[in-house]
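Quick one, T. Sequence first:
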Amino acid sequence: MRNSNFRRLWPLFGFLGILSIFAGLIAYILVGRANTPLVHFPLIVGVVSLGLFCYIRMPQILAFVRSRQAIYGTNVLIAAGLSIGIAVVINIIVANAFNRQLDWTATKEFTLSQQTQKILHNLNEPIRVLAFFSKDDTNQSQRDQRTRARDMLERYRRETSQLDIQFVDPIEDPRKMR
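Structure tokens:
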């Protein structure tokens, strides 16, 4: 009788181990450093509990690992991981190779004209652009103007490396207005 009660408690070691490891990870996130007892204690309890659980349940664990279900599940996990990895690599390559934005507006509102592109490509010396906009986000109109100016100047910057763009808040730094 006592042995059967004891056997029923072994799954709790697995649960306690997982719960303790999560508690240690949450403590690490909240504290911000790993060298505290608040992080070490739950992690140690978790690893020891999971170790005991695995030691006692070793025959069942080995039988599961060798089962057809586990093998197929592992194959699916590997295939999904590879698919996601390939998609991420392709995305990075495409983003770096084709660093362009498409302008789908009818009037080509967000496209630089050929003349502007030609001027920007032919710049021989650096040009410093000071854009004076308030950082006050309470005024919707000012915020929209600042966003439109930033977007336009960013399009210019993509065309040439000769452009030095700085946004200045005239209220915070009035000396730069001279």
